[in-house]
């Protein structure tokens, strides 16, 4: 997890500067993660002045879409495999799927919380895979 700092004052200024929606950039950045990707999409579309808030909104969109895709792919995979192997083995695969979803869900919760807190503190934290995707494709 890398934090991109143009300078200590530049990052703070961007995070605390006014936005077209009203609240400071750090507040909008944190709000973007609340109901990711929905709030990220709203802030991304409505905010046109503050680059800090737009970055976190874009990263929120990518994070929310990737999280949803992971869950859908895992569910489809385990459902198909469980149907193909039979009752007893299918039941065991279902249990393993449940446990893996709990672990993945907890990891995603920690990542979400980290990104939300970093945005609120005014840090432009680019998460390893999703940050560059958001910067290159949405900004």
Explain the layout of strands and helices.
Blueprint: E1 2-3, H1 8-16, H2 25-34, H3 38-46, H4 51-85, H5 87-120, E2 125-126, H6 130-138
Antiparallel strand pairs: 1-2
Helix pairs in contact: 2-3, 2-4, 2-5, 3-4, 4-5, 4-6
Walkthrough of the structure:
The chain has 139 residues and is an all-alpha fold. The protein has one domain (25-124). The chain contains six helices and two strands. The protein has helices spanning 8-16, 25-34, 38-46, 51-85, 87-120, 130-138, and strands spanning 2-3, 125-126. Strands 1-2 form a two-stranded antiparallel ribbon. Helix 3 (38-46) runs antiparallel to helix 4. The radius of gyration is 18 Å and the shape is elongated. Residues 2-10 have low confidence and may be disordered.
Low-confidence stretches: 2-10
Helix content: over 70%
> Which series of helices and strands comes N to C?
EHHHHHEH
Question: Largest sheet, if any?
Answer: 2 strands, antiparallel
Strand order of the largest sheet: 1-2
First-to-last CA distance: 20 Å
Q: Decide which structural class fits the backbone.
A: mainly alpha
Overall pLDDT metric = 82
Instruction: Work out the strand percent.
Output: under 5%
Number of strand segments: 2
Helices, by number, come to 6
GO cellular component, one term: membrane
Protein name: DUF4870 domain-containing protein
Keywords: Membrane, Transmembrane, Transmembrane helix
Subcellular location: Membrane
Give a short synopsis of this structure:
It contains 6 helices and 2 strands; from the N terminus they run βαααααβα. It has 139 residues and is an all-alpha fold. It is a multi-pass membrane protein.
